[in-house]
Description:
Layout: H1 2-32, E1 36-41, E2 49-57, E3 62-70, E4 76-81, E5 86-92, E6 95-101, E7 105-110, E8 113-115, H2 118-149, H3 156-185, H4 191-194, H5 204-217, H6 222-236, E9 247-249, E10 255-257, E11 265-271, H7 276-280, H8 282-292, E12 297-303, H9 308-318, E13 323-325, H10 334-338, E14 346-351, E15 356-359, H11 363-373
Helix pairs in contact: 2-3, 5-6
Amino acid sequence: MGIEFSLFKTIFMSRIILISILVIFTACSHQNEDSFTLQGSIANPTSDYIILHQENDIERKISTLIDTIYLDNEGKFKAGFNLEPHLYTLIIDNNKIPLAIDKGQHITINNEKITGSKDTELLMAYEKLRKLSLDSVVNSVRKEIKKEANAKNPNAIKIDSLNKLEVENYDLHLEELNAFIKKNMDNSIALYATSIRWKDENNISFFDDLVGNFEKQYPNLSITKKLREKVNRLQQASVGGIAPEIKMKTIKGNTISLSSINQKYTLIDFWASWCGPCRRESELLNNLYAKYHDLGLEIYGISLDTKKQIWLNAIEKDQRVWTNVSSLEGFKTQAAYDFTVTALPVNYLIDNTGKIIAKNVHGDTLKQVIEHTFK
């Protein structure tokens, strides 16, 4: 009886050990399983490697180096990665190739021709449309403005009209992109790459629904959290919301917070020395400031420049005599992130409680809004 029990115990324990080994092996195999692969060949490469980055934050331009992938003597490569679905960038000979990669995709890249990822194909189609649309409706107007400005006798009225058209056409450009997203993107990983151009209050509910559907399919991804955060910031920085606090340094290095401005109304003006529409609106801002400052108007000008002297030169040339601040970080500026500013010009009109009462109003519309506000 004792021998039989001992034998039974030995067999039982052996089975337990075997099952444990199988469980551990299965778990390890699962952990080591590649979630996606990259392979391909590069013709006449200038270096013997390519670099893969993960785009952690596209607005703040923060990325993480994932791997250096070495090429063989024929310029071929193959690598597997156990990483979550995300937006990546593959750098080949200083050329940046965006990749929107979902789990289980096996991507082949031959001289920058990409197959094996429907998400990347969608991203490429979106980028193609974006560039064509920008050239057609925005850059074409910018060329006309430049041509007229460089003419022997520039027509100020024509330039002013073209300025308005440029701003209006940029909004049309964004609507074309939104239409593409609505028709094609669904729950693609490529959706994250498009979010950098999400703006306009009229589309917040559209973006909210997009992200809601994305959350159902990908509840735990880091880009899901980024997309939801973007919608939350859009909602906060919309008309009726309370403007996020800003604390930035002036030309003289003094820190001035938005909440410390004791005026009835404040126009938060995001601009930069390189922004044509921003600079061309300086004369209007000067006129409005001269007329309404003593009645309770302040302008809080936030420059997205990166070089101090260029910023100072623009302030002096445009006679921007109001509150001027900058962190000289470009679009990485915290205020730009909080207000979801990814293109210029952008402005917000707030009352003395910080409530946003108007947004992205320019030219004659801005003049009318300020005049109506001070009636």
